[in-house]
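Recap from last week: sequence in, structure out.
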Amino acid sequence: MSTLAEIEAQVPALRRYAWSLVRHDQDADDLVQDCLVRALASLPEIEGNGITPLRPWLFTILHNLAVSRWRSLRRRGQTVEPESANLTVAPSQEWTSSAREMVDALARLPPDQRQVLMLVSVEGFEYREAAGILGIPMGTVMSRLSRARDALRAQMEGRRRLALRLVQ
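Predicted structure tokens:
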């Protein structure tokens, strides 16, 4: 598989991760586009060294761009509210309800926990790779992942208990 085809194959995963960072469709698309522009501009260097794994490298670029944008917006005093995210899900009502609950629970996680959860649990990166992408120690990745999973579990169980009480 050519390098360009490998990059193209990563676009859906990059978009998922970008959305988890910015929680807005257009901003996520812009972030992925900027990531791809940077990646393609640096491609000759990467292809020349033959060492850098492509997938973690792309996610590192995306993550660093998101951090830079966040810092820039913070300096300007602009914030983006999670409620402005536009989520549309069309499948069955039961699946839609469960998916929306999970997305809402994920959105309530602190950003550092959400980032680790997305990279490890959704995108399938190893702890070491996630640590490299985020620029943090592997122990911090494991700790954040554990706290994120515990928080998601507690949120989902709390909603189920509340729903059972309302039905009874």
